[in-house]
Every structure is written in C-alpha cells, then in structure tokens.
Design a protein that fits this description.
The chain has 303 residues and is of the alpha/beta class. It has a single domain, classed as 4-Layer Sandwich (Metallo-beta-lactamase, Chain A), CATH 3.60.15.10. It has 6 helices and 15 strands. The strands form 2 sheets. It has an 8-stranded mixed β-sheet. Strands 8-9-10-11-12-13-14 form a 7-stranded mixed β-sheet. It is globular and about 55 Å long.
C-alpha cells in the first residue's frame, strides 16, 4: 500500500517521551559504490551502506544499500509487524540497490516511512525508488510491495519529529544533493553525514554536528581513481579521515565513526587507516574526543 508523498514538515509536534532508555547503532553495510564480497574484504564487509539506529521505541534505517538485505532477513523473523523509518541521504546506487530486496516491504501489516530529498534531476525519493524497480532493471514494480509505504519529500534545513526524536537535515553535497541527518532523543545526539566533499568544514556544517555523541562520517573514500584507469585526480590537501578528525575536534564530537569504504580498500588497507587514526589520537590534546573507529559490518555501538 503506497500513500501519497507529503512533506515531513507535517509533523509539527513531538510524541510523548519514550520511557525505554535504549539508543544504539548497528552497521549492516559500510562499502561505497559497488558491493565487493571478496576474500580480501571479509572482516570489514563488502555490502554497500546501510545503518540501523534504535532510539527508544523507534527504528531508523539510514540508506538502503545491499546491507539492507541482511537487515531485512533479520527483521522478517520478528513475530510482530515491522515499523521503521528509512532516511535516505541521496539516491546513487550504493544507497538504494538493496531496497528492491528488502523483505519487510513485501509483507502486509508492516509500515515503512520513507524520507529523502530531491535528486539533481528533480525526482523525488518516491520516483527514484520506483524507477529502479521498473523493467528492464527489476522484475517486480514497487507496487508489489504490500507493506504500507509513506513517502516524505524533505529539504535542506528541515526539522521534524519521528515519535519523540527530533530530526534536522543539512545539505552536505551540492553535487549529489545528499542530505545529512541530526537525530536528538533525550540526551543522545547522532549525526549521519556521508557523501561529504573533503572541504566540508564550513561553519554551518560544524554547527550541524556540534557536540554530537556520535558523528558517522564519510572519511575513508579518497577518490575514484580505480574508475579512471589508474589516472589519479588532483591530490587533496589532506586525507578524508584527517578531515573527519578535524571536524570532530572542532565540533567537540564525542565519537567519530568512518564508513563508505572504497571498493579497492581491502581489510589490510582499512586496518592501516585504523592504526593511523589511533596514532593520531594518541598524540592529541586531552580535550580531543575519546574514540574514532573504522566501521565494519556487524559493528554495534551503544550511544
């Protein structure tokens, strides 16, 4: 059942606070561009981006890469109907390619609220997800999904509520129209900001991530050299993970988690990045944040 798209600004007031003191983040997919299920990527994983957040009574799902398929299998084992809010940053392949295989979307009585901005070509999140399921790309159109689907078109600097969670948006990439999300629930704040240009250190962005308990940031994917036949682009002034550290320090973030790993960044490469992060933190000032982690599939962190 597909309901008409509407703006998330329709939610003008929060629900009553939840009494369930639970907030956690689980990573189901951490890879960028294309799935890479190779032996060299076993420890960090090869599925494209999908992150599950539990806050009180709400389930938030960031992006729908192929990691969404495994999450769907687990949710389908539940005895009660599945209710979730899916927040898409943008609609490039690595963020939506798992959606047609998301089992809960095909089950009646399940309820999915789907949020996303407008693509560079003007298409809404509903149009983008519908188009990828049309022939010849997929065998079943979106109308085969029997769950109740609510679509919400959101914009830069929107503010709305999901239950008793406050959600704020910020456009983090003008080239892909990618949105970042800031979730605030009780005394927990999580910022999800991926597909970020390396120069993403302006004051507005720093205000958006200010004092977050966790910043999930796009800090490993350096360039697309592997798609250019080995011809490198102009080298950046710093590595993406260094920019992530700089942002976390300036914004007084408590914990930094880096994801969106390149298809050519294998386990050994990401181990080295983790070592570089740890080395940088070990020589940092006492007021630096306490933890920085390279995300891997199955990583589960309590907020």
């Amino acid at each position: 059942m597909i309901q008409t798209a509407r703006s998330a600004n329709a939610y003008l007031a929060p629900a009553a606070p939840s009494t369930t003191a639970q907030a956690s983040v689980k990573f189901w997919g951490v890879r960028g561009s294309v799935p890479t299920p190779t032996p060299a990527n076993q420890r960090y994983g090869g599925n494209t981006i999908c992150v599950e957040v539990l806050m009180g009574e709400q389930r938030i799902i960031f992006d729908g890469g192929t990691g969404l398929v495994g999450l769907g299998h687990v949710l389908s084992q539940a005895q009660s109907p599945v209710q979730a809010h899916m927040l898409f940053t943008h609609t490039e392949w690595d963020r939506i390619q798992g959606f047609p295989f998301f089992q809960p979307a095909f089950v009646p009585d399940n309820h999915l609220s789907i949020y996303g901005g407008t693509a560079p070509n003007g298409a809404s999140i509903k149009h983008c997800l519908t188009d990828q399921m049309l022939k010849p790309h997929f065998s079943m159109p979106l109308q085969y999904m029997r769950a109740e689907l609510d679509f919400h078109t959101i914009q830069d600097q929107d503010s709305f509520y999901i239950g008793d969670i406050t959600v704020k948006t910020f456009k983090i990439n003008p080239f892909t129209e990618a949105l970042g999300y800031r979730l605030t629930w009780q005394n927990h704040t999580l910022v999800y900001a991926t597909d970020t240009p390396i120069e993403c250190t302006n004051s507005d962005f720093l205000d958006f991530v200010d004092q977050a308990d966790m910043l999930i940031y796009d800090g490993t994917y350096a360039d697309l050299t592997y798609l250019r036949g080995g011809v490198a682009s102009t080298p950046p002034s710093s590595e993406p993970w260094e920019t992530g550290l700089e942002i976390a320090q300036k914004a007084h973030v408590k914990e930094l988690v880096l994801l969106h790993h390149s298809p050519v960044q294998d386990d050994n490469t990401l181990d080295q990045l983790q070592n570089d992060l740890s080395d940088r933190l070990s020589v940092g000032a006492p007021n630096r944040f306490a933890r920085a982690t390279i995300a891997y599939e199955g990583l589960n962190i309590a907020l």
